[in-house]
Design brief:
The structure is a single chain. The chain is α/β, with parallel strands linked by helices. The protein is 45% helix and 15% strand. The chain has 7 helices and 6 strands. A 6-stranded parallel β-sheet has the order 3-2-1-4-5-6, sandwiched between helices. Helix 4 runs parallel beside helix 5. The structure holds nicotinamide-adenine-dinucleotide.
Amino acid sequence: MVNKENRRLKVGVLGCGPIAQFAHFESCQKGRNTDLYAICDFADDLRERMNAVWQPQVSYANYEAMLDDPLVEAVVIATADSFHVPMALQAVKAGKHVLIEKPLSHSLAECQALAEAAANTGVIIQVAHMKRFDPNIAFAKTFIDNRLGEMLAFKAWYCDSTHRYTIYRQLTTTSRTKQ
Ligand SMILES: NC(=O)c1ccc[n+]([C@@H]2O[C@H](COP(=O)([O-])OP(=O)(O)OC[C@H]3O[C@@H](n4cnc5c(N)ncnc54)[C@H](O)[C@@H]3O)[C@@H](O)[C@H]2O)c1
């Protein structure tokens, strides 16, 4: 059980795909200072399913409509890579803080344009490089830096949960069967 703070950021998550399902919905709900206020996806069946599971206060089929909601304070952009910067620019224009899925963009110029658009607006932009905040990774980094001596070569593995693919397959199969 999470002890929620009184002041909580109302977050709207754009995109109900795998990464929203496996990371963002739960994080917003579990965060001490965040609420999963809104979700948005133009795929009706997926959005309705996620609405039933996560029960945000509102759900939107249209991103602009979510940005127009004055109660939304921050958005998570969990759509395909090529939409990240254009959608983040819309959020900045609407005065919403933005967490953007990685990679931010495939183009350096786009990244710079976003940084320029956000400068001096008071809007906070962050890319979801969440491993930088993972204590296990931080421990490994400190260990490598301080204990291993001079580095001659580096090879690493990262193991993720395999359950998420099974869950995703089940969701999409059910959704297809219903059509
Ligand atoms: N899936 C992962 O494990 C993972 C891990 C790390 C990073 N990412 C990154 O996260 C991003 C999203 O990944 P995903 O696998 O969830 O993508 P996805 O394409 O499966 O899901 C995106 C969802 O956004 C919706 N959408 C797209 N444009 C929209 C719009 N204009 N309005 C409303 N809804 C819209 C789509 O209908 C879709 O359901 C990608 O950039 C990916 O690189 C994913």
